[in-house]
Structures are given as C-alpha cells and as structure tokens.
Design brief:
The protein contains ten helices and two strands. The protein has about 250 residues and is mostly helical. It has a two-stranded antiparallel sheet. α1 packs antiparallel against α7 and α5 runs antiparallel to α6. About 20% of the residues are buried.
Length: about 250
C-alpha cells in the first residue's frame, strides 16, 4: 500500500516558496521608488533582511511566523508611505503581501496534517490533506504560471504519489471520495503546471536566440540540475563533477 509520510510531505514541498523571486520583485520595486525619503529606504531594507531570514528558516513554526510577519510589514509599508510611491508600486506591494499571507496559510494548513496519506486514510486525514493541497495549488498558480526550476523533481514525485493513492475504484459518492477527488484533481493540476513550466524553461542555450543576460541567468539555473543526476559508475560521477566545476568557473569568469 502506497504511503506519503509527514516527513516526505515536508521534505518534498518545503522549498516551493521562492524567496529569490520575491526578493527580485521587491528590489525592482525599490529601484523604481527611488529617490525616496531615507525613512522609506530604511524600512524597505528591513523587509529585505526579514526576507533573508525566511530563506534561512528551518522549522515549520519559524517559516509560518516569518511569512505572516513579512506580509504584515510589507502591507504596513504600503499603507503608511503610499504617498511616497506610485499607485502601481503601491498595488505591487499589496500583491506581494497577499502572496506571502497565502503561503503562510499553506504552511499553516500543512502544520495541521498529523497523519500520513494512504489509500485507507480516515476522513479527518483526507480533509486535512485536501485543505492543504487546495491552498497550495492556489499559491503556485499566482506566480506567473511558472514554478521555480529546482522544485520540479520533488514536487512532481509528491503529486504523482497523491494521484496514485487517491485513485477511486468505488464510484459511490461518499465523503471520503469527495476529498479524494479534490486531492486527485489538485495533484493532476500540479503535474500539469510542472509540465507547462518545463516547456517554458526548455529553450535551447544558443547564442543569438536570447540576450546575453538571459543566457547567463539560464545557464546558472541549469547548473543546479546536474546535482540531481544519479551517476551509476565512478567514471560518470567524475564526469559529472568535472562538468559542474567547469561550468561554475566559466560562469564566474563572465
């Protein structure tokens, strides 16, 4: 019987909050908002420091706390200093605040899950997992129809396991089947999202096809995919290691 443990759920979905993307959004907004009073700049940098602390957080409790704290800090900055920035930047700050609050809700719902998911899970367990996955799908759908590259393998594995576990053999409408359908449909949406993201990211690294900056960023991202390879022999392991080292040095020289 297939089982998804609490540990697997935590491990396979813990890095989906891409603080790099949020950091880039905030820094771009900050550069547009300049010149601004020193007090605004100081508050903004405090938010970036808080975002960095979220990146380094390990425990679920700390992550939840940092997400809600960040959301409130950004909203407070927007509401208090709205006269110092454009309406577009004000709306952007509120959007980022809402996104962080939603992720806080995702992690809060995940913290409530206290049992593994199996084909014979109780109604209470199915409800807990359903509440989590619905919020999870809502959150990943907000991020410009694209998932962070490094999260695909673990998230794909998790979604495929959920689809397998929640396959309904008895079509009778029961409360358990109701939540199984939510889980199954949501997991399939996640797989579809991953596939769409792969297609977006799969453009070839060819000079002239994209700008130099885009090629460099994409090359840097794809380096990390080498870490996911599973060499079968010592020769393959050495080749992988040598390739990764060469690419890192080459990109640093640029």
């Amino acid at each position: 019987m297939c089982t998804i443990s609490i540990e697997e759920l935590l491990e396979e979905s813990k890095e989906i909050v891409n603080s790099n993307i949020l950091n880039e959004k905030l820094e771009n907004l900050f550069s547009r908002a300049c010149p601004a009073p020193v007090v605004f700049k100081e508050k903004f940098h405090e938010i970036l420091v808080l975002l960095e602390s979220l990146r380094k957080a390990k425990s679920l409790k700390t992550i939840i706390s940092k997400l809600y704290e960040l959301s409130e800090s950004i909203k407070a900055l927007a509401d208090k200093d709205f006269d110092l920035i454009t309406e577009e930047d004000y709306e952007s700050l509120l959007s980022i605040s809402d996104e962080l609050e939603l992720w806080g809700d995702v992690y809060t719902s995940r913290a409530k899950i206290d049992k593994a998911l199996t084909e014979k899970s109780s109604l209470a367990t199915l409800r807990q997992w359903s509440e989590w996955i619905e919020l999870f799908v809502e959150a990943i759908n907000r991020d410009e129809n694209k998932l962070p590259l490094g999260n695909w393998p673990n998230l794909e594995k998790l979604a495929q396991a959920i689809v397998e576990i929640t396959f309904i053999t008895n079509r009778k409408e029961t409360k358990k089947n109701h939540y199984k359908r939510i889980l199954n449909t949501s997991a399939k949406l996640i797989l579809s999202k991953i596939e769409s993201s792969k297609q977006i990211e799969s453009w070839p690294l060819e000079v002239g096809k994209k700008s130099y900056q885009e090629l460099l960023r994409e090359s840097q991202k794809r380096i990390h995919m080498l870490d996911d390879l599973d060499p079968k022999t010592n020769e393959e392991a050495k080749e992988q290691s040598d390739t990764l080292e060469y690419l890192k040095k080459h990109l640093e020289c640029r």
